[in-house]
Write a structure and sequence with these properties.
Blueprint lengths: L1 H41 L10 H5 L4 H27 L19 H31 L2 H40 L7 H4 L4
Helix pairs in contact: 4-5
Amino acid sequence: MKHQIFLAFGCATMLLAASGGSSLAQDSQTAKSSQAAGKDASSPKKAHKVWTEDEVSTLRTPEDNYIEQRQAAEAAAAAAATAQQAKLTPKPEKHVGAASALANPKSPADADRMIAWENRDVDAQQELIDKERTLVEQATPETREALEKDLAKHIKMLENTKKERGALVTQKKELEKKAASPDKPVDAASASTPQ
């Protein structure tokens, strides 16, 4: 009989525990649903995130920053090299409309000195042109066009130098005429040649 009492008492305990557990589960589910409903009612839905320029920069990795800095450094180096090259590249002199360094001699002796300078310049340019012509004849088709452009440029420079020499010869003749007639004052402005 003791044994039956313990068995009955054990079954009752189990039934009580089982029924209490299910009621606890129901209570916890209702509590969770009421809390969720309370949260939904008390706080509105979260708005969609809109990223701004300032916030996007925080998403960058150090690798991205390194690449950007390296590209900026390369661009700065290229700009510096271009500026340095511009400083080193001689600017072409314009002879059209401007008086050359060997213009307007003040005496026939100055004119002779300037003419001698121009003669040496013509000889040197002619020698350079002759060398370039032989290079053009021996050049491959790939390099021939560039050499022909250089040759044409030097031929044009030679023609300009010859014109300057001719103008100096004319100025020398005018200076000799003025020196022969002492009653007229020598005027540098009238000695210039029309262009």
